[in-house]
Amino acid sequence: MNPTTRQLPTPAWHRLFGENDTQLPAIQQQKSWQLNQIGPQHIFEDANTTYFRIDAVLASTDGFFSESFLLLWSGKEIFSIEPSEGSRVCELAATRLQQTDQPPSPEDILLVILQTASDMADSLLEAIGDQLYHCLIQTNAVLSSLESKKKDFGVSDVITTQLNLGKIESLLTQAMDNQLILARIARHAAAICLTSDPQLSARFRSLVADIEGTGELVEFAYQRIRVLQQNNNLALAVKQNQIIKIFSIVAAIFLPPLLISTYYSMNVVNMPILEWQYGLPMVIIASFLLAFIPLIYIKNRGWLR
To answer: Which one of 65, 178, 206, 255 has the largest count of C-beta atoms within 10 Å of its C-beta?
Structure first.
């Protein structure tokens, strides 16, 4: 996307979009940026510039996605190198800066961008909470169906919920890692700004506390995931036991008739009952009686519940 089509909130913030941005090579040469030296680091400094790489997991109507962008701080101005389609964090930060009455300073810009990244992490946790609520409904439905006489949920439903919980846990882990890195970046940014404005210093401290405070929300979400996973494992075990119980009861009912039929199917010379005129009715009656005896025993023991 062409950067000239974007309305910049302040002359101190320059947004570049993707490695194919036509302005990037010239600015990189002019500013002597060492972009190839950053590597996997999230904080990097050279003689004139401090580099911050910010990773974020964001929620949208289509699900969850990740984005990453660079912030380059030189004291007097800020450059952001974003994906070619732009960064949602930077878009929201630019919108917030445009609503200010006075032109923001570079320190204000950096603070607003970091605060926006933290706020969008909070929105991610809210979206994850909604996903956990749906998993809770599914888990309760599975547990309730264990005593239902109608068509109930199957093992595949429990496994689907477990897979969804695994994906949510992975998102939480990634979000927590990003927040820990963002807290490091915020502390480093507060140190390099060296502002004499008490209000701005207090905002930086509040930002760090806000970022670190999400750890409690993440821990609570982890606990909810653990409880749901345990309930799903319980439901899966009970469901499998019910299936085995049904086959065991059926086997116990048909075992005596099978024993009788096996006995009378033996090829022996002398079997008097075969010549008795009431032999067939007696065998049928005995088979039914022997089939009902284990069924009555199982019912009295309460194994059919």
So the answer is: 178
Strands 78-82 and 13-17: parallel
Distance, in Å, from the CA atom of 3 to the CA atom of 8, rounded to the nearest integer, reads: 9
DSSP-assigned states of every residue in 55-82: EEEEEETTEEEEEEEEEEE-SS-EEEEE
> CB 68: neighbour CB atoms within 10 A?
15
CB 77 within 8 A of CB 48: no
pLDDT digits (tens, 9 = 90+) for 183-236: 999 998 888 876 667 777 888 889 889 888 888 888 888 888 888 888 888 877
Residue identified by tokens 């996605």 is: 65
pTM across the whole model: 0.73
Q: The tokens of 81 are what?
A: 């190198």
Residue type, 73: W
Lowest mean pLDDT among 39-53, 103-117, 150-164: 150-164
In whole angstroms, what is the distance from residue 98 CA to residue 82 CA? 19
Interatomic CA distance for residues 181 and 43, integer angstroms: 9
Show me where the domains of the chain are located.
3-242, 243-300
**Dihedral angle, C-alpha 234, 238, 244, 249, nearest 10 °:** 160
How is residue 37 annotated by DSSP? G
Instruction: Please state, in angstroms and rounded to a whole number, the distance separating the CA atoms of residues 115 and 125.
Output: 15
CB-side exposure of 2: number of CA atoms within 13 Å? 2
Task: Please name which of 109, 32, 28, 29 lies closest in space to residue 76, comparing C-alpha atoms.
Answer: 109
| Cα→Cα distances 117→122, 124, 149, 184, 289, Å | 9, 11, 50, 13, 74
Token pair for residue 166? 């695994």
